[in-house]
Amino acid sequence: MIKNLAVVLLALSIAACSSTPTQDAAPVEESAGAATKGAPGTTTTGTSTTPIAGTSTGAGAAGNTAVLKDPANILSTRIVLFDYDQFVVKDQYRPLVEAHAKYLQANRGARVTLQGHTDERGTREYNIALGQKRSDAVKRMLVLLGAQEVQIETVSFGKEKPKAMGSDESAWSQNRRVEIVYASD
């Protein structure tokens, strides 16, 4: 009796772990002239399709990496700065993070490492934890905006790799950052 019960419970456990495919939502009807999302990396307006800056419609593993180095493109900016003892992404960096999220969404082969940093104040352990919280905050934002978690790695250097040397607010403000580093760099 106990053996049979164990077998039944095991079978139910296995059945409960199986997944059922879900149906995608039905496409939304678009009105003439409204901008809608077409193929990855494009925007459709009426009958024309226009590439979004910083994306690739090609089939390469990492897509168009030239836009990442183009100084005229927002994707060449790779630093998100933080306030003292904070790990909330400021509103002024939202367009930057959105642009990188769009790039990652359009280039599923692209990989990025988010490197969290702090200023020199505080203990080593505290700063490692704060740097990690900062890189995790940028990752959450990227994922919410369309990037895949598997594309993003986070790491914290704490106060170990300052960008600016010095013990004043000018240096500290440059060191409280997350650097966005693409694998293609």
- Given as residue ranges, the uncertain stretches (5+ residues, pLDDT < 50) are 5-62
Task: State the secondary-structure class.
Answer: alpha+beta
Total strand segments: 7
Largest sheet: 4 strands, mixed
| Biggest sheet, spatial arrangement of strands | 4-7-5-6
Q: Identify the overall geometry.
A: globular
Describe the structure.
It is a single chain. The chain has 185 residues and is α+β, with helices and mostly antiparallel strands. It has a domain at 78-185: 60s Ribosomal Protein L30, Chain: A, CATH 3.30.1330. The chain has helices at residues 2-17, 66-69, 94-106, 124-144, 169-175, and strands at 35-37, 42-45, 48-51, 79-81, 112-117, 152-158, 177-182. The strands form two sheets. Strands 4-7-5-6 form a four-stranded mixed sheet. Strands 1-2-3 form a three-stranded antiparallel sheet, with no helix packed on it. A hairpin with a 2-residue loop joins strand 2 (42-45) and strand 3 (48-51). Helix 3 (94-106) packs across helix 4 (124-144).
Chart the SSEs and their pairings:
Elements: H1 2-17, E1 35-37, E2 42-45, E3 48-51, H2 66-69, E4 79-81, H3 94-106, E5 112-117, H4 124-144, E6 152-158, H5 169-175, E7 177-182
Parallel strand pairs: 5-6
Antiparallel strand pairs: 1-2, 2-3, 4-7, 5-7
Helix pairs in contact: 3-4
